[in-house]
């Protein structure tokens, strides 16, 4: 697990380290600049034309220091000082003074003769960027972009990307590599910032652990080594040891979603999976997934809300350790009854997805059944229906949208996008780094519900099941893509990779 920070949190880490621990700001900066210079030396040669674009805050000061280090190693460096010294930070003034004493080639931006730039070090704005880039700064960034640097190393974060949201603040520079300090910023994990950052390298510049621990560390991501934290299968066990997943899914002419969800739950480790679906799906599901138990109902009895139907459903809910509710249920009138009965009668974790969420959006009064064991997994369109916000608005504020929805009901909200967010009920927020665009295909979401339910059945609590589930799902997608390329992934193949990850 890796913590991620907002720009504001990073500033608090800086301040605490400087003021309470006593590591001078310039000492941190020296290590930051060295990390940048070393990265440039790995990619460049002494004959390369290296430009360093420097603002007059501490990001610019990092740039000036890196320019000095490269200059002293014999590299051809040209530091472009974009702003005057008047409002420069004290570290910036110190770095410029040192650079002057060591003979670094310093110039104002107006002295730039546009030409070949082999390597650009982008040190205009770091976590201090707090507003839209306009006027002269915008023109400077446009000029730099027109020069088409062959390789760009961003200092801390690409200039123009907001460190909390990953949004472009009017204009931004694209980097091949971003050398970030201490902890990765949310802005390089979230689109479009993620795309602008290239490869992100986190440089340890000496922040002691306690400088972060004392903050409320809310944001985190998972890496391949974290898979070790998933529960192991004890040797002495039976199918009952691993929990029972009830998949309430499927409708007439729609059996695939139930199949995929159930299959994924089994592949993730559930001991028993039962599909509760319409009678029409019995044969096809029994044939496709003979390992699953199939219990069926008639749409008519669900519509009428007969006693037999209610009793049958209550029995299923009592049987389950975890429930998937929604995939492929369709939008027939009876679905509302079905969803309400499950929400009212289940006392175990429920993964609510797809048509289950559609039912909630059309019948918002059903949210009164939401308890802390609900995990909702909407994509942006579903979230738009649930909240009444536009998709474009949600996309610009994934984290806040997911967090607000989760907190409103005290539930866990997994908001699915190119970077999926898990606003967990325990107040931590998971930012997913696995997965790829090839997974944007029918059935992929059904597999995710099954994986999360499988983890719940193994005993993970809702927050961990949601975060690990999203990660495993993306990782499986990455592995399938590696084998068969971008275009031909099928949702069911995601389930076939789960074993190689776990
Ligand atoms: N010891 C430390 O603290 C360490 C810090 N480190 C480094 O410091 C960086 C943070 O430094 P920072 O806080 O000085 O902010 P920074 O990103 O340089 O930007 C501030 C400048 O930008 C300006 N500005 C902002 N928005 C603007 C806009 N839209 N359009 C125009 N101007 C705009 C703003 O102007 P102002 O608002 O003052 O008018 C100010 O001049 C961090 O990312 C890391 O690289 C590391 O060395 C580790 C040790
Ligand atoms: K930068």
Explain what the structure shows:
The longest helix has 23 residues, at 462-484. Strands 8-1-10-19-18-17-16-15-14-11-12-13 form a twelve-stranded mixed β-sheet, with helices on both faces. The protein contains 20 helices and 19 strands. The two termini are 16 Å apart. A hairpin with a 5-residue loop joins β18 (421-423) and β19 (429-431). It has helices at 7-21, 25-43, 58-72, 90-101, 135-147, 186-189, 193-197, 209-213, 256-268, 282-288, 299-304, 307-319, 334-345, 354-362, 380-387, 391-396, 398-409, 444-457, 462-484, 491-501, and strands at residues 2-5, 49-54, 76-81, 106-108, 119-123, 151-155, 177-181, 184-185, 199-203, 219-221, 244-248, 272-278, 293-297, 322-325, 350-352, 374-376, 412-415, 421-423, 429-431. It folds into two domains: 2-219, YjeF N-terminal domain (Rossmann fold); 239-501, 3-Layer(aba) Sandwich (UDP-N-acetylmuramoyl-L-alanine:D-glutamate ligase). The protein binds ligand NPW and potassium ion. Ligand NPW binds next to α1, α2 and α3.
């Amino acid at each position: 697990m890796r913590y991620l920070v907002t720009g504001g949190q990073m500033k608090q880490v800086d301040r605490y380290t400087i003021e309470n621990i006593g590591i001078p700001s310039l000492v941190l900066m020296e290590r930051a600049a060295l990390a940048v210079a070393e990265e440039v030396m790995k990619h460049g040669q002494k004959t390369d034309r290296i430009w360093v674009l420097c603002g007059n805050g501490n990001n610019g000061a990092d740039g000036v220091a890196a320019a000095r280090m490269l200059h002293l190693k014999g590299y051809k460096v040209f530091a472009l000082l974009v702003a005057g010294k008047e409002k420069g930070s004290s570290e910036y003034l110190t770095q410029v003074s040192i650079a002057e004493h060591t003979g670094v080639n310093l110039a104002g931006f107006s002295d730039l003769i546009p030409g070949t730039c082999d390597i650009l070090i982008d040190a205009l704005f770091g976590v201090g960027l707090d507003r839209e880039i306009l006027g002269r700064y915008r023109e400077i960034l446009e000029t730099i972009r027109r020069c088409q640097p062959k390789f760009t190393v961003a200092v801390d974060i690409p200039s123009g990307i907001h460190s909390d949201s990953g949004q472009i603040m009017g204009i931004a520079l694209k980097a091949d590599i971003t050398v970030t300090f201490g902890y990765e910023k949310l802005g390089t994990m979230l689109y479009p910032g993620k795309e602008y950052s290239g490869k992100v390298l986190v440089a340890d510049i000496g922040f002691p652990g306690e400088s972060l621990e004392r903050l409320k560390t809310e944001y985190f991501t998972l890496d391949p080594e974290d898979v070790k934290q998933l529960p192991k299968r004890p040797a002495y066990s039976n199918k009952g040891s691993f929990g029972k997943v009830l998949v309430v899914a499927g409708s007439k002419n729609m059996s695939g979603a139930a199949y995929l969800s159930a299959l994924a739950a089994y592949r993730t480790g559930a001991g028993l999976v039962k599909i509760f679906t319409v009678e029409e799906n019995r044969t096809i599901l029994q044939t496709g997934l003979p390992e699953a138990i199939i219990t069926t109902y008639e749409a008519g009895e669900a519509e009428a809300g007969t006693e037999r139907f209610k009793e049958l459903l209550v029995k299923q809910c009592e049987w389950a350790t975890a429930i998937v509710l929604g995939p492929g249920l369709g939008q027939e009138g009876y679905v509302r009854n079905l969803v309400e009965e499950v929400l009212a009668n289940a006392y175990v974790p429920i993964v609510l997805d797809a048509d289950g969420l559609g039912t909630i959006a059309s019948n918002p009064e059903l949210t009164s059944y939401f308890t802390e064991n609900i995990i909702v997994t909407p994509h942006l369109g579903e979230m738009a229906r649930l909240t009444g916000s536009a998709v474009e608005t949600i996309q610009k504020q994934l984290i806040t949208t997911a967090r607000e929805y989760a907190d409103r009901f005290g539930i866990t909200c997994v908001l699915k996008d190119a970077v999926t967010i898990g606003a967990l009920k325990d107040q931590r927020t998971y930012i997913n780094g696995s997965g790829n665009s090839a997974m944007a295909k029918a059935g992929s979401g059904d597999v995710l519900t099954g994986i999360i339910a499988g983890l719940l059945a193994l005993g993970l609590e809702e927050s961990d099941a949601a975060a690990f589930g999203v990660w495993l799902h993306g990782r499986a997608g990455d592995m399938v893509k590696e084998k068969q390329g971008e275009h031909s992934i099928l949702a069911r193949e995601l389930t076939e990779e789960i074993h190689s990850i776990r």
